[in-house]
Write a structure and sequence with these properties.
- The chain is an alpha/beta fold and 254 residues long.
- It is 45% helix and 17% strand.
- The protein has a 7-stranded parallel beta sheet, sandwiched between helices.
- α2 packs across α9, α4 packs parallel to α5 and α5 (113-134) runs parallel beside α6.
- The termini are far apart.
- Bound molecules: NADP nicotinamide-adenine-dinucleotide phosphate.
- Belongs to the short-chain dehydrogenases/reductases (SDR) family.
């Protein structure tokens, strides 16, 4: 652990960071990175067993961590996430809004209304509602990070509606940045393909995975830690003159 801290520096010493959907994958890696750099991190997701397991992993690395069950579509649980953070740490410096679902591979014109509502509510609306809860506690110099996707730029096929919600996040980033300036910066990271549970339906097929790797200039898929590094940069004071921006972290697929 001491080695990792030395490698990463301590840009988040004294800061408090909340991350949604952060018990696995990209957001877990982000919470870990912020924690290793000195932040007190508040992690959350729907299932208590996932929250408990993630808390234990982070504590084992010497990170100050609070775990809260929060399905981002649930108003009371969003409130709890913010209130429990403030009760324990007294303030909020960083919010990483990461939760997303892609429950349908149907063409847009065949997707049931209930599914359209769910994708929109979790992928877009919940971010606004969570920030409404968090806003009174956000400090001067605070930072909000939204997690979009490379498919935001080409939202079609099996990821059409999901992709459109990720396109919406690019605009939401700019709208929130304007509204939350001067005290809070708002930026967005758009990952390329990262072999997590979420992307397993694509990456588990060896041939599809190989093709995706070959398409990138760097000839490989990204890792959760690489997405976390970009997110941590934008959340840190190293990015103090950057707001309203969308950063692609993709290895540049052709
Ligand atoms: P992941 O590894 O599958 O992790 C998903 C996490 O989200 C888990 O901790 C899960 O825990 C939690 N979760 C799921 N639904 C939730 C909800 N409604 N409310 C709260 N927590 C919820 O996923 P990932 O690949 O890291 O994806 C993270 C983000 O990156 C998403 O926004 C995704 O769109 C974006 N992204 C991913 C890729 C990729 O290739 N992986 C590419 C571009 C963008 P519980 O089951 O306990 O809730």
């Amino acid at each position: 652990m001491a080695k990792m801290v030395a490698k990463f520096g301590r840009r988040f010493e004294g800061k408090v960071a909340i991350a949604t959907a952060s018990t696995k994958g990209i957001s877990f890696a982000t919470a870990e990175r912020l924690g290793l750099e000195g932040a007190s991190v508040v992690i959350s997701s729907r299932k208590k067993e996932n929250v408990d397991e993630a808390v234990e992993k982070l504590e084992n690395k010497g990170i100050e961590v609070l775990g809260v069950v929060c399905h981002v579509q649930n108003a009371q649980q969003r409130k709890d996430l913010v209130q429990k953070t403030v009760e324990k740490y007294g303030k909020i410096d960083v919010v990483v809004s990461n939760a997303a679902v892609n429950p349908s591979v149907e063409p847009l014109l065949k997707t049931p209304e209930s599914i359209l509502d769910k994708i929109w509510e979790i992928n877009v609306k919940a971010t606004v509602l969570l920030l409404q809860e968090a806003a009174p506690y956000l400090q001067k110099g605070s930072s909000v990070l939204l997690i979009s996707s490379v498919v935001a730029f080409q939202p079609w096929g099996a990821m059409a509606m999901y992709g459109v919600t990720k396109t919406a996040l690019l605009g939401l980033t700019k709208a929130l940045a304007a509204e939350m300036a001067i005290d809070t910066r708002v930026n967005c990271v758009a990952p390329g393909l990262v072999p997590t549970h979420f992307a397993a339906y694509i990456t588990k097929d060896e041939a599809v995975r190989k093709t995706a790797e070959e398409k990138t200039l760097l000839k490989r898929l990204g890792t959760p830690e690489e997405m976390a590094a970009a997110t941590a940069f934008l959340a840190s004071d190293d990015a103090c003159y950057i707001t309203g921006e969308n950063l692609l972290v993709t290895g540049n697929p052709l």
